Amino acid sequence: MTQSVFSGREAELRQLRSALYSLLNGTSGEKGEHSCRVILIEGESGIGKTSLIRRYMETWFQEEDFFHAFNACQRNEGLVAYKSLNTILMRLNEQVNTRGRKSAKGFFNFMQEVGPKWISLIPVFGGVTAATIETAMIARQHLGKAEKSLEVSSEAEIIEIYDTELRKHAGEKPLVLLFDDVQWMDMASAGALLKLIRLMVERPYNVLFVIATTKTGSIETDSEISTRDNFSGYPFSVMLEQYAGDEPSSDNASWFQKILLEPFSVKEIDGLLELWFPKNNFRNDFAVQLHAHTHGQARFITEIIEMKVRKQDIREEAGSYKLVSDTLENLPATVGSAINARLGMLGKNHQRLLAYASVSGHDFEAQVVGKVLNFDELELLDYIDDLSRNYNLLSAGSTMMVNSTMIDHYNFIDQFTHRHIYENMDYARRRALHRRIAEIMQETYGDLISRDRELKNTWLRHRQIGAGILDGISGKVMMPGVRHPGETLVKAYMEAAANELDNSRFCQANFAMDEAIGHADKGLEFIRYAENDSADYSRLLFLILSGKYMSYDWKGMYAESEELARNMVEVSNHMGDAEKQSEALIRLGRAQHGRGNPVEAQQNYEMALEKLGSQGDRFIRARIYNRMGMVADAFRKYDEAIGYYLKAAEINNVKDYEADYGANLLNAGISCRKMADFRKAMEYFENARILFESVGMKHMIAAVLNQVGLLFLTSQDFSKAQDHFTRALEIDKQTNNHKARAEHLLNLGRLFSDQKNETAALECYEESLGLYYLTGDNQAQANVNTSMAQSWLELADLPKAENCIIKALRIVENLPNQSNLAWVLGNYGDFLMAAGKNDEALTQYKKALKINSASGEQMAITGDYIRLASFFKAKGNQKEMQHYINLGLKCAEDCNNLRDIEKLKSIGS
Q1: What is the spatial distance between Cα 338 and Cα 340, in angstroms, rounded to a whole number?
Q2: Which spans in 576-637 are helix H?
Q3: I need a labelling partner for 602 at 20 to 30 A (CA). Which of 113, 359, 401, 691 fits?
Q4: Cα 247 to Cα 14, 201, 790, 803, 827, distances in angstroms
């Protein structure tokens, strides 16, 4: 009966088979020798998505012409970031004889233990003022060969590892990667998978992604449960379809295909009945009755039919199948009712085993459940075998050795049955079972629990549900209905909150910021039920808020981080801890600066200094001075900014703080460059480089080289500028620093553009844009698209120029910080001029000048004057042209900007 339902999905199976044959034959139309493709299977819960994928695998995945890996995402996933992608890669590696299991284990260990280098980039009115180091946590792990070490400093690098490994496998055989129930996928994997698909489209290779997901708001068992949203505000399928539809450079037919599973019609149900029960004498309205009850859901139809076969309501007599006439009125009303009827036919011990196993989870350990039931192991395995072979409710999983004991894993065939059994269990019984399972896990796994993060979280979840502080069905934190919870329960909430803080930090270390925020939120839910006046409570609350702040800050979500910083200020004031108060005010100022409020930021930095006092931590004081320098830099008060940076440098000029000292000098050099004091800027850059070399901080050496390159570019010394940008890029490749590499490629592209080598410039821009897609930096993507538009205009390719500038406009118009809007508007004006829309171009030029004049950005204002001078020259208005040339020359000379001086002189010549 289980496989018969596939007879209703032949068309969908043919589509999947065609995609597989295309992959193996390398036929993909316009994509050339590769046949990369993404197939999205979407439909309501119970419609048959999982069954379709499993039948697909059973039918065609026996051959050895390709590698394949399947992952069924589970509800409440997210305890370990990148879990889904790690599972896929490990299963692929198990098939690769040349690398084998050792490589898979090495990769998994790497993903578990890798740590970040926190580098905070502060956006200030259209650019990056400086790179300062908040913390430096660098972890190295081995992947594959022992001599190959990896140093990861961004989420983009983790994604590149996945991309590199997948391409390596695909170089041996084509890949088929299948993901089921992606609505439950951890957010880090969801975001990374979308980026891997983008990389596949940009640089095709032999891979087929098959992705199944439940439609938002679809029906699950007896009630409506909204689909979990796992990717930055949108379900995965929406983001995927949006990319497939919006990406103008991609041909959807060549790489994206959607299979929407519709409910079975009455005609299809009738056809299924004919295939299941040939030569039957069923009443003509039986298919109609089934459709009315099931709404065409495959899972529901199967449950009802199997139930009737077991109850002999459908029976074979004299070579034909007969339907008992009085059964039409007794059909179950819901999937849950059908499952109840199915379970009601089981013996008491079978039912107990399923109930206890359901508490362990969709995947459970037989030996653990056996101890809870006090079953003999052989007796237990006999029951499980019966439930697997005769009732098709369980299936065997992996076997592993734990502390000299063999542990056998089993799982429920489908999540419907598992959830139905668990959710219909008495609350008190369920809670007691969770407590008992936690105890047995402790006995079984021992010290392994403290070493394995996922195992530890599973154990803690059982303890929390058993204590009544967590709802096992919804996963929500709850307050038990007792009047005097006592110290023990308060302690339980505190421990749970501390564990969520630990999980949040782990996810941050793996650049899974959405997961980190989720764990911090859970920690805050737990701790609010443990509220008291103890120092431990306040300290833990402060740390959770601080951790959540860092995640929002990393994502550039300054409004959210500002609110958290205000909460931190409130908690630190309650604590009366001056250093914590200063730290909270620093965070508040940083968030306000990020939102474009440097005045408020400065006020909070000054308050932080006051709170810290003369006896406070001197290194916190250095951080405050550094931040105050950034505010001064934002107001173009470069002398003042340099003064603050040097105050911070004086404090950090001690052993073990070389990195911070170098960052202060680098910031001072950047301010000197902006005020056209090139000699002093070069001196600071050189001293910063020496400090970074002394502590082996290659990525910061690259940052210095980039700044020196900008010095030479401004003075039009192209040879030296190119040399420094190239050296910076070489270091970026060595350190896998994608964010810096993207920025340095952008600068190199602008250098080529200044030399009128637009083809070389576009190559740099395209590579830079690909890297910024990985890092998810929307502002930077707008910058690169704008630069590409300039190059296409120079090459007189108006359609491509328009495409790039429209992309840039869409991005900046939707950003909370519109610091680069003026630059994009100016370039939009250039396109309009080239298209002959002069009046519209003038409007955009004036808008850009108004924005830049308000910010006081001299170099940007000079660029606006250049555009306006060129505009009036083209219009033949010599008076207006000379007016803007004069204004532009004054600005350019004030900044010692030889590049723009030459441009203005050439306009007037």
Answers
A1: 5
A2: 578-594, 598-612, 618-634
A3: 691
A4: 27, 10, 20, 11, 22
Instruction: Report yes or no: 300 and 48 within 8 Å, Cβ to Cβ.
Output: no
Q: Under DSSP, is residue 67 helix (H, G, I), strand (E, B) or coil?
A: strand
Across the chain, how many H-helices and E-strands are there? 40, 16
For residues 552 and 508, the answer to whether their CB atoms sit within 8 Å is no
Q: Inter-axis angle of helices 698-714 and 718-735, to 10 degrees?
A: 160
Q: How many CA atoms lie within 13 A of 209 on its CB side?
A: 29
Contact present, 565 and 600 (Cβ < 8 Å) = no
Q: Which two tokens stand for residue 422?
A: 């668990």
Query: Does the structure show a pLDDT above 80 at 607?
Result: yes
DSSP one-letter code for 43: E
| 8 A C-beta contact, residue 144 and residue 71 | no
With cut-offs at 50, 70 and 90, classify the pLDDT of residue 578.
very high
Residues 6+ apart with CB under 8 A from 19: 37, 39, 208, 210, 257
The answer for residues whose C-beta is within 8 angstroms of residue 694's C-beta and 6 or more apart is 658
Decide if 23 contacts 174 (C-beta within 8 A).
yes
Shortest CA distance to 516 belongs to which of 502, 526, 529?
A: 502
Residue 37's alpha-carbon distances to 162, 200, 203, 239, 243, in angstroms, are 17, 9, 12, 16, 14
**Cα 177 to Cα 900: distance, rounded to the nearest angstrom:** 52
Residue 544 is inside which H or E element, if any? helix 535-554
| Residue 465 and residue 496 in contact, taking contact as beta carbons nearer than 8 Å | no
Long-range contact pairs involving 397-403 (C-beta distance under 8 Å, separation at least 24) = 397/363, 402/444, 402/445, 402/448, 403/444, 403/445, 403/446, 403/448
Residue 779 makes CB contacts below 8 A (sequence gap 6+) with 123, 811, 812, 815, 817, 819, 820
Which tokens in the block code for residue 141?
A: 């792990």
The pLDDT value given to residue 665: 97
DSSP state of 815: -
CA distances 644 to 309, 613, 691, Å, are 82, 17, 19
List of E strands, 718-866:
none
Question: Distance (Å, rounded) from C-alpha 411 to C-alpha 76?
Answer: 16
CB atoms within 10 A of CB 487: 8
Long-range contacts of 342-347 (CB under 8 A, 24+ apart): 342/303, 342/306, 342/307, 342/310, 342/391, 343/421, 345/310, 345/311, 346/387, 346/391
pLDDT of 610 strictly over 70: yes
Q: How far is CA 375 from the centre of its chain?
A: 44
DSSP state of 776: T
Residue type at position 651: I
Q: Which residues partner with 150 through β-bridges? A: 141
DSSP letters spanning 295-355: TT-HHHHHHHHHHHHHTTSEEEETTEEEE-GGGGGG--SSHHHHHHHHHHTS-HHHHHHHH
Summarised one tens digit per residue, pLDDT across range 842-885 is 999 998 888 888 766 777 888 889 989 989 998 889 999 999 99
Model-wide pTM > 0.85? no
Give every CB contact of residue 715 below 8 A, 6+ residues apart in sequence: 678, 898, 899
d(CA 18, CA 21) in angstroms, rounded, equals 5
CA 723 to each of CA 389, 466, 681: distance values in angstroms, whole numbers, following the listed order: 70, 64, 18
Instruction: Write out the two tokens for 287.
Output: 């298919």
- Go through 452-479 and write b for each residue having 16 or more CB atoms within 10 A of its CB, e for each that does not: eeebbbbbbbbbbbbbbbbebeeeebee
Task: Give dist(CA 758, CA 625) in Å, integer.
Answer: 42
DSSP characters over 666-691: HHHHHHHHHTT-HHHHHHHHHHHHHH
129: phi then psi, degrees, rounded to nearest 5: -70, -50
Q: Using alpha carbons, select from 352, 342, 348, 335 the residue that is nearest to residue 425.
A: 352
